[in-house]
Amino acid sequence: MSFIADKQTLDDLGILNRYRSDAVFTLFNQVKTNGGERLLEEMFRNVLTNEQEMNDRSNTFRYFQQLSLVFPFSREQADAMEDYLGAGHQKRLPATLLAIVGKKLTGAFVGDKSFVALVSGVQTTIAVLKLMRTFVNKIDEHAGDHPFSASINELKRILDDKRIAVVWKEKAERINSVSLLAKFDYLFRAVLYTEMKQLLTMMYQLDVIITVSNIAKDRGFSYATALEKGKHVFRASDLRHPGIKKAVGNTLELSAQSNLIFLTGANMAGKSTIMKSFGIAVYMAHIGFPVAASEMTFSVKDGLFSSINVPDNLQMGYSHFYAEVLRVKKVAEAVAKSKDLVIIFDELFKGTNVKDAYDATLSVTKAFATFRNCFFLVSTHIVEVGAALQEDTDDIQFLFMPTIMEGNVPRYTYQLTKGISADRHGMKIIENEGIIDIIRSAATAFPDKV
Fold it and tell me: Where is the DNA mismatch repair proteins mutS family domain (predicted)?
């Protein structure tokens, strides 16, 4: 079973797009190697499926965060070793020696660079092995039981292999004879090829783990505790958007008894930001990554849907409103399949008139709230819907983002408050921007255009 999070949701929340400077992936993509970047993207795309996997990964990050290690390998070293190991090998030492002699002669007479590349590959591999042994010893100084212990022990097994002992006696810069070069090339790409590939893979894992844990420490992120599916719990303290430094934190709590938050507030008050913060935290917790909160506990869900920036589809002939309807239908179909989902609706049905939007938002919200196995965060400007819901239900949380007017200037606290917004400051903001004055001045200046 896989976690459901479609492209619309990932785009809404700004999670994966590596080309967006504000994407969550970009925030964590400070790895030192290309292999580390590939692994990081794979971890982002492949959501974990049970609480043990999530907690193990979180605990690994937490453990390395305490160590505050610096990844010792460069991108150039990792690329060179990967290219070298992937360039093929001979199955016998004599064949390896003959092939190297051929490369050297070809390089001398026709300028072929393959011999130079081979020397560089062997030298880099020796340097990486020595660095890795020093690095593993440093980790071993802080030895303790943690989820990455098995991988560290596997690294130690490879590095303690008697067949590799010859490496510790040689200096990489002295690999200048054909016979010695053939000896090491055969060792790395034939005898110990599987072990060298394993070591490279674990290098990339360490790159990601150290990078992510150091970013978490720098940004003040924490590690969520995952509970088994069916517990229907979400609790987060000081929840904020990971991309905003010094953001105002908020507390969110959902359960089977109170599974829907109805959110109101003025434009710019912070509704969309808290909704994205919630969705991002849910997703990141499900891949075992740090979350932008001081504390978080959650039960495993089957998927995450959002409807924040639903585009129209001119090619299909869909209006914005019809695109919204189709989005809500897709979510309803998933909910109807008894999936445990987290669902975020920002400004439902804003593509139609106020009366239809009121009726549709009220009906859809009431219907969704009956599915206790799902969590919902629904926002709207139509505060009258909230009043109607309060009359019919007693298990919906009503929260709003306040706007405080200081004279004619709005100030936003970005702090969730219980209740339904009574803010009516839209015209004040329009007046502050002088829009009406601009129109009136234009009408006076160009009466023939009016």
Answer: 258-447
Nearest Cα to Cα of residue 127 among 162, 171, 165, 164? 171
Nearest to 332 by CA among 380, 362, 374, 390: 374
H or E element: which one contains 379? Answer: strand 375-379
Among the listed residues 70, 57, 63, 166, the one whose alpha carbon sits nearest the alpha carbon of residue 122: 166
Q: Which residues contact 367 (CB under 8 A, 6 or more apart)?
A: none
Phi, psi of 343, rounded to the nearest 5 degrees: -130, 130
**CATH 3.40.50.300, domain 228-436, yes or no:** yes
The region that residue 75 occupies, defined by phi over 0 for left and psi between -120 and 50 for alpha, beta otherwise, is alpha
- Indicate the residue type of 373: N
- What digits encode the pLDDT tens for the residues 267-283? 888 899 999 999 999 99
- Positions of the chain with pLDDT under 70: 1, 90, 100, 105, 107-112, 141-144, 172-173, 176, 310-318, 424-450
- Rg of the chain over Cα atoms, rounded to whole angstroms, equals 29
Answer whether 242's CB lies under 8 Å from 221's CB. Answer: yes
Predicted local distance difference test score (pLDDT) of residue 398: 96
For 140, list phi and psi in degrees, rounded to 5: -65, -25
396 vs 420: CA distance, rounded Å: 12
Is 29:35 a contact under the CB 8 Å cutoff? no
305 has which bridge partners?
A: 343
Q: Long-range contacts made by residues 385-393, C-beta under 8 angstroms, separation at least 24?
A: 385/262, 385/358, 385/361, 386/262, 386/264, 386/420, 387/420, 388/362, 389/262, 389/362, 389/365, 390/420, 392/366, 393/366, 393/369
For 218, 283, 286, 295, 336, the CA distances from 342, given in Å and listed in that order, are 29, 10, 12, 19, 14
Q: Is beta strand 260-265 parallel, antiparallel or unpaired with respect to 396-401? A: parallel
